[in-house]
């Protein structure tokens, strides 16, 4: 079943989450019509390879054209219209930046997988629950409503200022007319009546000036209150959601909504500023005793400028955190002399600023590292598909500086995995007589000099962003705080859902909790130390919990990904638990679990019944690691696995995947070819040779219920075995195998 088919079967609350991240940048119609084709492409790789992204974009347009031809024959007018719009979008917005559409589609597919994983969980995790708080959603709606109301108020005040200007022009005309009369004419009754009328107009002008100033003051106050409270909270929430998304959590939306709010507020403030400038202009033409403009205007203008400074400073954000294209799911880990990308956005989108803001990137001020490559670029609205005012640095490289002694700085493991740095950005905005210096920084990054240091560096990034919402605590690991075990387990599940397409269920998480704590615990409020997670070796092992888990992620990604996504790998189950699960099952029932003693190993255990039929026995095969799985796909191993027991002919003991799924039904679609038939020398192959296929074979002694030594798994082809049977008896074959084992 395709991923999109699974999504369509979700409950309505999960479908609503899916609906949130499909928009005009990547319409849902295309996701639906091209579901299988989209899922068969490597969008993640294309997101970091421009040539590959361009090919995929061109193929996507071809796929849309084919759908357009189909629906044109069906005369589906609405769908024809939508597909033409999508084709125009793809050819227009993304032609100059094909990697952007690859990023969008990759993120959508990843978020679908995360939602599917969340839907399979019995309860929502504490972190994700906090991010989807209904109070937060209500605040978002309130912010948008208030921003709209402020914009309307500013526009209404514009009309009041225009009325005031017209009134003053009329007063000025009538006053100058009287002033131009001869002295004798001024004493006439008609003129005296006109003077009274002018006094009344002046009173009205005074009232209207006070009224306009009062309305401007209210607009400024509303903007101030909104910026100080709800908008600041919205921005902090977005930054927190970004932190969580960086470590595998739900994709963080809402930046476009924030941009709309920031832009409307900036436009309103500049509108108020123009209104104050107009009042100053009116003041130069007319003033009087008790005139409110010279008293109130300077204070209001100062407040407007102050709000504009703060609004611009808060609007300068890191939209996409630093990330190496080679490791898109490990952001904020940077390797020296390897390029990384980072994207910034100014949430105040004004056409006057297009290509007018030059951003400079630097690394923190300890002089340990410098940035090589293009580190000054102009923000523009052309490179982003949504037209935001942004800049993306794509060719930055961190380089470690040499010390005065001529050698590089300390590259020990402490520096590599726990020393935090930040990438800083600065620019200057000059607009309407204002000059505003802007600064922002990335979330803390970890520098490594060798890719082997990546797992521990990533553990540091996880721990930091899980434990704090402080964006710049570079001394965090001087005294790292403990983390709530329930939140850590949720984040660990995200590692699996984001990296290998399927999260962990409650039973799997319970096993991890027991492995971390050494016993069965109620982990809701349990606090786990950083040392326990990443520095201390597991009991009786030569590696830490995190190294063990990271090796499993690597194993899944490279060798058993389809089986994991299908949910056929139980994986995290202890030896004791697996025997409890299997003991009452049909002989030949097996399950797949990750090795607890071998890094990056997977094994299978099956249940068998002794000849007397009263007792069961369990057999666990030696764990397969990436070296073996690189030579033979795991699904083929399960299909072709053979066991030699005493004098019996080799047979496959694996019949049913736990609990009762026939093996071929579970894994048949993943077999590389049809089950191997025993071949004869004349059956094809290279002339003069017998075609061969490697198969795993184990020999189990009658009195053993445990797996034998690692040498028990011997590669043997069906053809070779057939030839041996033609010349040797089963007893002779067993003797030869036993002799081989005794000398291994």
From TrEMBL:
Keywords: Acetylation, Activator, ADP-ribosylation, Coiled coil, Cytoplasm, DNA-binding, Isopeptide bond, Methylation, Nucleus, Phosphoprotein, SH2 domain, Transcription, Transcription regulation, Ubl conjugation. InterPro entries: p53-like_TF_DNA-bd_sf, SH2, SH2_dom_sf, STAT, STAT4_CC, STAT4_DBD, STAT4_SH2, STAT_linker. One of its GO terms (biological process) is type II interferon-mediated signaling pathway. SMART domains: STAT_int. The keyword Hydrolase does not apply. It is found in: Cytoplasm; Nucleus. Pfam families: SH2 (PF00017), STAT_alpha (PF01017), STAT_bind (PF02864), STAT_int (PF02865), STAT_linker (PF21354). GO terms for cellular component: cytoplasm; nucleoplasm. GO terms for molecular function: DNA binding; DNA-binding transcription factor activity, RNA polymerase II-specific. Residues 564-660 form the SH2 domain. Belongs to the transcription factor STAT family. This is Signal transducer and activator of transcription. It comes from Poecile atricapillus. The gene is Stat4.
